[in-house]
Specification:
Layout lengths: L45 H42 L9 H18 L8 H46 L9 H26 L11 H14 L19 H37 L5
Helix pairs in contact: 1-2, 1-3, 2-3, 3-4, 3-5, 4-5
């Protein structure tokens, strides 16, 4: 080649990196003795146990009061809703328009009170509010109840009167004393007159008026009538059983037995009278044939 410059010398290669040496940590364990001091046993003392039980009892009572208070509040609210619905339905014929208006007004005021001043009061306050509503709505409810119960009570009294009237005139009561029958007839007449008079009074009243003929009075009249006519239900006395005639053979045997019993008795009587009869003969010294 020509006279050019010689090539540069080859670069020397870099030395290889040495691996890092990680210093191994030595685990050092130190042991110390901890002092333990027992100040008391884990069990409760008698006093602490009593105090814990008293506290538990107080919590149970408090829970019960809260539950009963909530239940009474719900009872007031439920009664308000129920009565308001009844006044627009089954109680409407048994109340005047003025009475319904006043009742509904009171019910609305009670409902508002529950969500305002009565939101959080004690059980007795809720109970008094409910009792006041019951007393206020009682007349209307009683008219409805009496109207439902009266027909059945009247029917029961008439049935009782019919039964006892049949017994008085029945041949099955011929064994009953006439005085008892007269007492029953008088009680029947009084009950019939009372029922006719009270029924007429009740029929003359409107449904929204307080009734004069109560179901309880009708039930009491049935009891009074039943007591007055109790003698009519005495059963007839049983007839005496007829004597069955004995067969001829049995009758003859019975007669023979009776005769056999009579013979020793006659002999005994003869023996007793014999010394008395013989006494005169021995006195006279005479033989008697």
């Amino acid at each position: 080649p020509g006279g050019g410059a010689p090539p540069p010398p080859a670069a020397a290669s870099a030395p290889a990196a040495e691996p890092l040496k990680v210093k191994k940590m030595k685990k050092k364990t130190e042991r110390h003795t901890l002092p333990v001091e027992v100040s008391r046993v884990l069990a409760l003392t008698t006093r602490e146990l009593m105090e814990a039980r008293e506290e538990e009892g107080k919590m149970v009572i408090q829970d019960r009061i809260l539950i009963e208070t909530a239940d009474m509040k719900n009872a007031v609210e439920s009664y308000v809703y129920a009565m308001r619905n009844k006044l627009g339905a089954e109680l409407e014929p048994f109340t005047t328009e003025e009475e319904r208006t006043n009742l509904i007004k009171t019910l609305d005021e009670t409902e508002n009170w529950l969500y305002e001043d009565g939101e959080d009061v004690d059980k007795l306050t809720y109970q008094k509010k409910r009792d006041d509503l019951l007393a206020l709505c009682s007349p209307a409810n009683n008219r409805l109840v009496e109207a439902d119960n009266r027909p059945g009570a009247i029917a029961a009294l008439r049935k009782a009167m019919g039964n006892f009237e049949s017994l008085v005139s029945s041949a099955d009561t011929e064994h009953i004393d006439s005085a008892d029958k007269d007492k029953a007839r008088a009680a029947l007449g009084e009950a019939k007159a009372w029922l006719e008079a009270e029924t007429a009074k009740q029929d003359a009243l409107p449904q929204h008026a307080d009734p004069v003929l109560l179901a309880s009075a009708l039930d009491a009249k049935v009891s009074t009538l039943t007591s007055a006519c109790a003698a009519l239900t005495k059963p007839k006395p049983r007839p005496k059983p007829a004597e069955t005639p004995k067969p001829a053979a049995d009758a003859a045997a019975a007669d023979a037995a009776a005769a056999g019993e009579a013979a020793p008795a006659a002999a005994a009587e003869g023996n007793e009278s014999a010394p008395a009869a013989a006494a005169p003969a021995s006195a006279d010294g005479m033989d008697v044939d």
